[in-house]
Amino acid sequence: MQATTYEMVRAYVDTIPIIDTHEHLPRYEHLRDKEADVLTEYVSHYFKYDLFSAGLSEALYQQATDIRLPLLDRWKMLEPYWEACRFTGYGRHLDTTAKSLYGINCIDGTTIESLQQAFRAQNSKDNHMHTLFAKGHIETCLLDADDYVIDCDASYAHGVCRIDALVSPTTWKEIKRLEAFSEVSICSFSSYLQAVDVVIGNAVEQGAKTLKLGLAYVRPLSFARVGYAEAELAFNHIFDASHYPRWKEKTILLPKPAQDYLLHHILGKANENHWVVQVHTGIQAGNANYLSNADPLQLSNLFLEYPLATFCLLHLGFPYQEIACVLAKIYPNVYLDMAWNHIISPSASIRFLKECLDVVPIHKLFAFGGDESKPDLMYGHLAMAKEHAALAFAHLVDHRRLTIDQAKQTILALSHTNPKQVYRI
Questions:
Q1: Residue 314 forms beta bridges with which residues?
Q2: Contact 369, 337 (CB under 8 A)
Q3: SS3 for 161?
Q4: d(CA 304, CA 334)
Q5: Block means of pLDDT (10 residues each) for the chain, length 425 residues?
Q6: Could you give phi then psi for residue 84, rounded to 5 degrees?
């Protein structure tokens, strides 16, 4: 019997190498929690926010993730909320992880103990994370450790220089840490700029493949042009709490003009050196935020003002993905990254893969970034992404939009060739 288009595409997808464009995994294998509990591990990242949305209280969540309590008792605490969320992208993600790694089709009260046993047997191994990378044909990932220090295991990761703490420091402790890593005494706005230049320069010299801006979690993505004098006046407020005693937290709320100037300063360096800048756009992890802060349309002035920097819009700006597509169409230096998308909304991800070729040149699209902190969940996320690619491109072939060879070439470009070229891996 002749294979269906889906079967042919799916078989091809399972063989291709992957460049994973965005992860939050441990910097080194030995930093994993090898004694982890499967229930705690699986609900500790994204799925818990669906559980909270379904009505789970923080107090009950803390009980349910207390590994000192019996596993089945903890499952029963979560079960009603879990069932309410089973069919969300996050819920399906967990079932996909259990099936793809341990052959367990559905996580429920009848399987949770078997899953626990299988998970602990694999997670306790010294090379579990490396095994998953090999099994998924992942050549490397871009590792965002939420830091401008990019130290990580080069056998599976390239560091990402996170610039949030440089643009918007929140405590005096961060200022002192910046002094330590830059070896610059910060006593003025000009010396702060010098320190920023040093730590970013060091990160790039040490192999950072991109800068990363994640401030859409705490402020709008609109960064205005600000003069030096106005920015310096705003910045000088960081010294207001410098005299507080050590036992009192020295918090900083850097005014927007100073933040805006600092980002423009960094992007000027990115433009000068042709660096790549990842930007968190769209939905923020967690519950109860200002979604409008993350609308990628607010970045338009930056795309215009820094044409030699490359901007990668993480998460397609979901639910602003159509806006993100148009931005990538009209700005030569804007690219689209599907990191996290496959578990946010599987249906939207499949639809995007089918429709994006109508709008955006194919070399500007990246198909996968796990955006996970747990290795198992990274692998389950990849399994979903591969299925979405197979479904989407089989549809395009069956509807005579692409030939089977064109579909294969495009999948390889989105999953490997494009990110490898843009990030210079």
A1: 280, 337
A2: yes
A3: strand
A4: 10
A5: 91 97 97 94 95 97 96 97 98 98 97 98 95 98 96 96 97 95 97 98 96 98 97 93 79 94 98 98 97 98 98 98 98 98 98 96 98 98 98 98 97 98 97
A6: -65, -25
Q: Measure the CA–CA gap between 251 and 241, rounded to whole angstroms.
A: 7
Q: What is the distance between the alpha carbons of residues 167 and 132, in angstroms, rounded to a whole number? A: 35
* Rounded Cα gap, residues 156 and 425, in angstroms: 12
Amino acid identity of 153? D
| DSSP label at residue 424 | T
Distance of CA 266 to the CA centre of its chain: 21
* Strand (E) or helix (H) holding 142: strand 138-143
Bridge-based pairing state of the strands 157-162 and 138-143: parallel
| Residue 241 CB neighbour total at 10 angstroms | 15
Contact between 308 and 344 under an 8 Å Cβ cutoff? The reply is no
**Of 112, 46, 104, 102, whose CA–CA distance to 342 is shortest?**
46
